[in-house]
Amino acid sequence: MGAKEGKILGPTLGYSQEPLLPLINACEPLSSIIPDISKHASSALESTPSNPADGLTRDESAAIRLFTMKWADENKSLHTILNDTLKTADRENLKPWHKYLKLFLTALAKIPCLPSDTIWHGVRGNISGEYPSNNLNVKLSNCSSPCSCHVQTNKTDNLVPAEFFPNTTKGSVHIKNLQPYTLYLFDINCSEVMATKTYATRTDVYRPSSPLNIELTLNGQRLRLKWKPPAFPQGPIDEYQVIVDGVQVKPPMKNTELSYEMNKDYVAGITHTISVKACNIDTQNRTLCSDPKDTEISYFRNKTSTSSNIAPMQSISIKQISFMIILLMKILVII
After folding, report:
1. Would you say 38 and 44 are in contact if contact means Cβ atoms under 8 Å apart?
2. How do 163-164 and 212-219 pair as beta strands?
3. What is the CA radius of gyration of the chain?
4. How many beta carbons lie within 10 A of that of residue 138, not counting itself?
5. For 164-198, how does the pLDDT look when each residue is reduced to its tens digit (9 = 90+)?
6. Residue 273: in which H helix or E strand, if any?
7. 212-299 CATH, one of 2.60.40.10, 3.40.50.150, 3.40.50.300, 3.40.50.1980
8. The CATH fold of domain 128-202
């Protein structure tokens, strides 16, 4: 799917017919696209051992290194420009890349698959908003080796040590059991650095509990469902979804609407089942709703039964009138 065009893109073809060239030669067609590409390719080769692991040649291993290495200007790096090009609909733009892609993908195909695992990549800045609310990750980098750092949550005694890769200065902190839609302060302290870096972030929303005080009544000739907000909203409720006899009402109710009235008159002798869900929409645009079964309620009235809207006081008044008529008749008989 192309991010800019919003449509399905065609396959990347043509590179497989290219010959397998040394890295420097494979990058020559990119000289007008990527500034100093030959300089970066030479640097990747110099940093690559003569006999790489997994049966790769030096040029194949260097092709992977060239794709992953950091550049002074990330917007002009090979991997940024290649990714942007892959997102465009015009596959002709990929032709200058074919020789490099042949070398790069040949190298990737030789690397054996590993079991599922978590891959950590240290970056500068706070990217906590990209993670679920109960699983926040803080990335650390640029710490003098050996690093000894920990993260403190909300100025409490909850100190979580950072884990660093062997022989590197980059690591991560994995903080669990955070509450949804809650503001947190994270202090990053390193023994080798005097200053403390503080990040403030709010966790994402989560699935709310069910609406409360569900009522289903006959209002005139139409059924009306009423409710109150959930006890645990887990965020600012985005919408309410009403389900009538298994069919969701469209569009959803606004978060300020706490009632729904059916658009057709009720017909006696028919059972209607209605429920309502409270929903939040998280930063990944996922709609997280409460369980509709928790609020499910049914309404049924026999064809011969009296209206449920007759109030108790009205019934008492009728009895009083009947008693007065009987008493008046007795008085008239006596007279």
Report:
1. no
2. unpaired
3. 34
4. 23
5. 666 666 667 777 778 888 888 888 777 666 667 77
6. strand 272-281
7. 2.60.40.10
8. Immunoglobulin-like (2.60.40)
